[in-house]
């Protein structure tokens, strides 16, 4: 077993990202669902810790896989501590959270943890496949991915398999300790869709968001976000967006062009979807 000193060394990237201020969406969501589920407070406290660990560890991996430069307005962890140490740290935290879940002594909780972590990685894997093979998914394929992933844990801010995965994990763990038998999956998936498309939308347009992320970071990462998918699918003969995505450009001028033409005309679709899921 690692000594306390060595443990601190192993967890330096995790400690760094955990100290960066976030939106506390996970805590608010868990509190909201607790009003229905009424799980034991000590179990909820452990579940909150598990979800926080998984969320921050997943961000360490996401930033490496996306070749990101900034996270919450600060340099990404792997630029400070190096890629190998950051990968090892994130994986270590995954197992620490698994150990904590096991300590809950609830077989159903362990099943929920395993299933949602599998779905999380399936969603992230599809996201990476589409990006690296320059293969634009359909809107339905994208929404399914969002509902299966991290979506970033109820809680992260989200990607559904990716985003919804952490949402469902948090709610599923709480429900393992609750007498409530209601199926919250449709609500959780709706939240995941809403938050992911919102994140995609403001990544391209919101000036305040750009202060904490590089300008139009999704374009630099070559990521098929929802507004890009709609624009590409609506006009498959126009290859400009695909060409820009392929370059993973850092040019502000080129990214401004991409947002304006032809992407700009399709942003109303994203706004309509947000209104639908946000009702």
UniProtKB/TrEMBL annotation:
GO molecular function term, any single one: prenyltransferase activity
PROSITE patterns tied to this protein: POLYPRENYL_SYNTHASE_1 (PS00723)
Family, similarity comment: Belongs to the FPP/GGPP synthase family.
Example GO BP: isoprenoid biosynthetic process
Domain of life the protein comes from: Eukaryota
Gene3D superfamilies in alphabetical order: Farnesyl Diphosphate Synthase (1.10.600.10)
PANTHER family given in the database record: GERANYLGERANYL PYROPHOSPHATE SYNTHASE (PTHR12001:SF44)
Pfam families in the cross-refs: polyprenyl_synt
Protein name: Geranylgeranyl pyrophosphate synthase
UniProt keyword NAD, yes or no: no
Keyword Signal: no
Keywords: Magnesium, Metal-binding, Transferase
């Amino acid at each position: 077993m690692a000594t306390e000193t060595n443990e601190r060394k192993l967890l330096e990237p995790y400690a760094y990202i955990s100290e960066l201020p976030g939106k506390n969406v996970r805590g608010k969501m868990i509190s909201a669902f607790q009003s229905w589920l009424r799980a034991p407070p000590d179990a909820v406290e452990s579940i909150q810790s598990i979800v926080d660990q998984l969320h921050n560890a997943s961000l360490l991996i996401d930033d490496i896989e996306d070749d990101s430069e900034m996270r919450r307005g600060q340099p990404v962890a792997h630029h400070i501590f190096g890629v190998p140490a950051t990968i090892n740290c994130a994986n270590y935290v995954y197992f620490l959270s698994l150990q904590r879940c096991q300590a809950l002594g609830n077989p159903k909780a362990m099943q929920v943890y395993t299933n949602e972590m599998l779905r999380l990685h399936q969603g992230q894997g599809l996201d990476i496949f589409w990006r690296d093979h320059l293969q634009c998914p359909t809107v339905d394929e994208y929404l399914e991915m969002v509902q299966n992933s991290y979506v970033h844990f109820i809680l992260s801010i989200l990607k559904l398999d990716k985003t919804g995965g952490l949402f469902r994990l948090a709610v599923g763990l709480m429900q393992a300790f609750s007498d409530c038998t209601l199926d919250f999956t449709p609500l959780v998936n709706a939240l995941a869709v809403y938050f992911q498309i919102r994140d995609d939308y403001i990544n391209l347009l919101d000036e305040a968001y750009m202060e904490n992320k590089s300008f139009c970071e999704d374009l630099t990462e070559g990521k098929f976000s929802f507004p890009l998918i709609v624009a590409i699918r609506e006009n498959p003969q126009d290859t400009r967006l695909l060409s820009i995505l392929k370059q993973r450009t850092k040019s502000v001028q080129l990214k401004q062009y991409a947002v304006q033409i032809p992407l700009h005309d399709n942003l109303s679709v994203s706004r309509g979807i947000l209104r639908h899921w946000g009702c």
